Amino acid sequence: MSNDKERKVVGVVLAGGLSKRMGEDKALLAYGAQPLVERQATILRQSICDEVIICAGEKEYSDIRDIYSNRGPLGGIYSAMIYFPQSILVFIPIDMPLITSLTITSLIREVKKKNESKKVSKSNVFPLVLMNSKREKEIINHVLKENRELSVNRACDKLAVSSGELCVNHDELHNCNTPEEWHYAKHLLESING
Asked: Where do the MobA-like NTP transferase domain residues begin and end (predicted)?
């Protein structure tokens, strides 16, 4: 395998959820004329990702299909690990529209420098950057096969993923699961963008 500093970095937008609390597909929510799925992909492209994909299960805008169906974000993470076995993987959820390319770039650089997987902070699992090692794939596969408590946090604990050392604006990590949370995020975006 090549030096980790030279490995391809693949950005992955996790967009396969059912959006039950939102009442409509979060990926298709629009900010201005841009659907959220495009916004998230653009943020990853503006960072130092070499390639960007959408992982959305069976949805028509998905670039890859889940290896294990109906396993939530963890299923999407595992699928990306299988499709891009030699790549460092950067995961952001569809419902975190305030995250910046600067934060993602800083986290990727930290991962490359320390040569270890990292989540953005102790209390937030996303953005998540995985080195995509054989050990990491095996652990996540095991968690998925157990098919119980399929939380990304639980998988990160089993992987011993450390927290980044970044100073991140709390608003960047705002998660939008309901119409009210989306309205708040749009308000923040409007105040940032003028």
From this structure: 11-117
